[in-house]
Design brief:
By secondary structure, the chain is α/β, with parallel strands linked by helices. It has 17 helices and 16 strands. The protein is 33% helix and 17% strand. The chain is globular and about 70 Å long.
Length: 465
């Protein structure tokens, strides 16, 4: 029987004042009963608008239908027919602005909890399903290289491997997963989940080589010389941007990238790890995106007494997911909205002691469509802090572009690629943040999928010549 409840089935979560002191996952996931109850809210629409809202076109009503029937393994198989990372996407995709934004149930109530159901099916497969051998895939003997093991690279590699290509993924860090392991905190995306999904892909014969900085350890040309017939670049956007204000070189100023990498990848929050723990008392995080929320919530969990988000627009313009903002507020993060830093203040030892800001007001919309923030003259004030974390965006690392002839980038440092991921260098494809600048996991996965398809066509045409 259909469930006509206007609200989603709630998902159990850790209590805010408990979870803000640990790094364990915030949302605990659906039980079977909860998943079936939520799945019963799906109307199985004939025109499937939710599928159109998904960058990788997950067959949403079909997998939800299988959950309703209790056939969870079939639901997982439907999910993985188009999405190589369902447990990851079920946790970190912005469903509210993609698939769930198109859900018909959202017209007169809350949309179906598609992400929660995706996570349920993937988690159940990981924890409960009998271990099955990956299907035997006939290899075609064609070697392809994938640079970067984030969502774009893994998705591209998965699609190519399932079609018989001999795929090697080159990762610059010592562990695979890219931004999924260095950027997103454990409490939003447990690293064990990322490892499981990487292992699933390795089951299809993908080789992953870590500590390989393409552009330094090997160039793109050397990959071709080594027999790789096409290359996909999914190296992400890991170069942090700064505010270019006085005081950014003081001790106690971090980019969000560095701060999160120390905590997530190098596990500075755990005893027994060599990375210095970042212990602060009063922290200012500058920015309003998901990365800023992650940094602020990490700082809280690292023991800070007070954590501020400083953002130059209002709550309505915050680019972070509403769920992440909601969680941050519940956990005690203070939002300093319509404020903009103009200077970071240090003491005689060059350590941060404060951040000077000005009050802002909103003017007419700018090119981004958001109302332009305007400083109020003479409104300067100082917030006492000992740590400042800058989270105002990232751009691609220029290393590969600078060492590869014929590979063009735009003025923002993003690789130039057509709608299929083909770059200006023959045989080299690219996608994800390396092309678009920092975006979402699912958009990167979609780009990896599109590029894999284009690479297969390219290699087929090349074979005919």
């Amino acid at each position: 029987m259909a469930n006509m409840d206007k609200k989603k089935t709630p998902i159990p979560e850790q209590e805010p004042q408990v979870r803000n002191k640990n790094f364990e996952e915030v949302a605990l996931g659906y039980t079977e009963e909860m998943a079936k109850n939520e799945a019963a809210r799906c109307l199985n629409c004939k025109n499937k608008p939710c599928v159109e809202g998904c960058p990788v076109n997950v067959r949403i009503p079909e997998f939800i239908g299988k959950i309703s029937e209790g056939d969870y393994e079939a639901a997982y198989e439907i999910l993985t027919s188009t999405n190589s990372l369902p447990a990851v996407c079920g946790r970190v995709c912005p469903q509210e602005s993609q698939c769930e934004a198109k859900c018909v149930r959202g017209i007169k109530g809350e949309p179906v909890g598609i992400g929660r159901l995706e996570r349920f099916a993937a988690d159940r497969h990981i924890t409960c399903a009998e271990k099955k051998a990956c299907p035997t895939i006939q290899k075609n003997g064609v070697k392809v290289a994938v640079v970067g093991s984030g969502p774009a690279g893994l998705t591209c590699a998965g699609d190519l491997a399932m079609n018989g290509f001999d795929v090697t993924v080159f990762e610059s860090l010592h562990d695979a997963g890219g931004v999924l392991i260095y950027g997103i905190p454990e409490f939003r995306l447990p690293k064990s989940i990322v490892k499981k999904e990487v292992e699933q892909l390795q089951g299809y014969g993908i080789t992953i080589k870590t500590d390989m900085v393409i552009g330094k350890t090997m160039t793109i040309d050397e990959l071709f010389a080594d027999g790789y017939e096409a290359v996909f670049i999914g190296s992400g956007a890991g170069l942090p941007q700064f505010l270019n204000i006085e005081g950014e070189s003081l001790l106690g100023v971090y980019s969000a990238n560095e701060y999160l990498t120390r905590i997530n990848l190098m596990k500075s929050y755990k005893d027994g790890y060599d990375t210095p723990a970042v212990k602060s008392k009063r922290v200012a995080v500058v920015g309003g995106g998901n990365v800023a929320m992650d940094a602020a919530r990490c700082a809280q969990r690292m023991g800070a007494e007070k954590v501020y988000i400083i953002y130059r627009r209002s709550m309505d313009e915050l680019p972070a997911r509403s769920e992440e903002v909601h969680h941050a507020i519940e956990e005690g993060i203070e939002f300093q909205l319509l404020r903009n830093p103009v200077k970071i203040i240090g003491d005689e030892n060059s350590r941060v002691v404060g951040i000077e800001c000005v009050e802002m007001e909103l003017g007419e919309p700018d090119a981004s469509g958001r109302r332009r923030p305007i400083a109020k003259e003479g409104s300067n004030f100082v917030i006492d802090v000992d740590t400042v974390i800058i989270s105002v965006g990232t751009s691609p690392n220029p290393l590969i572009k600078s060492t590869t002839k014929g590979l063009e980038a735009n003025k923002h440092g993003c690789l130039v690629a057509d709608e299929n991921g083909a770059t200006t260098r023959e045989g080299v494809f690219a996608g994800g943040d390396a092309v678009t600048g920092a975006a979402t996991v699912i958009l990167a996965a979609g780009a990896g999928k599109t590029a894999a398809s284009a690479m297969m066509k390219y290699l087929e045409e090349k074979k005919k010549k």
